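$ fold --in a.seq
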Amino acid sequence: MKIYKILALGLLVVIAVGYFIFNDNYFNIDIHSHISPSNKASLDMLSLNTNSSVNDKPIQNDIPRSSKVEIGALTTFMNKEDFEKLMEKGQKNGVSYISVESLDSMTKKQVEQALKDLYEKGSISGGIKLKEFTELDKARSILKQEGLHNMLSQLDQFKSTPDSILNDYDMNLTGAQNFGTYDNSSGWSGMYKLYENTSQKVEIEQINLIPDKSAQQLIVEALNINLDKDTPAIYEQLKSDSIEKLTFVSDRQYYQINGQNLKPDQIINIANKIINSPIK
């Protein structure tokens, strides 16, 4: 399963994350790494023209702990000075930040609708559950058959999220799957992990961004929360399914975290522990 041959899930295409495969002159602009086990059938486009009139009234949502400023009709935590710092940091972190203004008119129009859904309905999908938490049995079976140690040995220059971070919340690893690009000499570029207890679930999708080979692209107008170490992220909610989502890049690692039935701020705390962990 090669990341550059799977155009992931749905309607949208740019908001947060574009996975670039430099060797193959290809890039897939994809918010949630939807080529992964939990999201492998949707192409999510999202961004916003800050001069657009798609939102004519202030937007209300439940994004936790974000310091917000108004940019046009969009509520975001970013200002010009922060953006310039972000650009400088991003070059070292495996991520580039671009504005919707750099997009062609057709893409921009689709992106505007996606961002409107994010801010008015809580998620890029407009509050609709796509593939989150739908392939759990497959992940459980693969982990049981292959074993975690063997799967970790097949990863390309990274170690994956420490299980101890989720163990602190009484959640145990119950499923896993390697995914992304595969190189015969170095292994898989990504790993999916599933953690569970009797009432909660967390999916973590991680892609290793290797210098000169891969990077992520995020649309700055889509960033709506700031995590530890000044890490900008996209926060989403699917309230009808009690699901929260975070998408971000830290230490040349791309993450999407999906949480179900979590306590207030729990997904934020999990993400911050991942960011602050020396093990990636």
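$ fold --in b.seq
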Amino acid sequence: MTKSRIGLSALALSLALLALSSTAYAAKPPTEAQMVELVGGKDSGWAPAIFKDLKKGMTPDEAKAVFPKMKKVSKFGFADVPVKAPGVKKLVLYFAKDKETGERNALQSARIEFVPALTKNEDWFKLMLKVTQDKWGPIRKPEESIAKRIITWVGPKYRTAQFSKIGKQFQLTFNP
């Protein structure tokens, strides 16, 4: 077997394993306890549990102290944070541009991106509705919000949390 065929075989095997890992999430979504650990409960404050130490206006260096694996902030202000949590693809932090310096140095929002395989899992969606309502309260206009897959809660000091389907995945966005 030539080196190029070996390389192609390894690539095919890697792609097959990646497909299987995505399927595994679809077959076995995160449990309620795992989602509560990620989002938090009613008594854990307004912020999702995973973002409890973030504050609006934090610099990238301050955020990196909270999430040491945070990647470099892009020119558009986004920084990915790899995490190992059931059903989570990654975390994304958004830093606004400073009007005076032009630097992306003020944290404005944080979001949890869920693995795309969960998008078609109605049981997981219902579980997330339960977990998020247990934390932030009932959904206003539930029929409309649930049908559109965009559910927003407004909390103290106009801080918001939004569970929504964007493209092919769900995300939970939080504004500290």
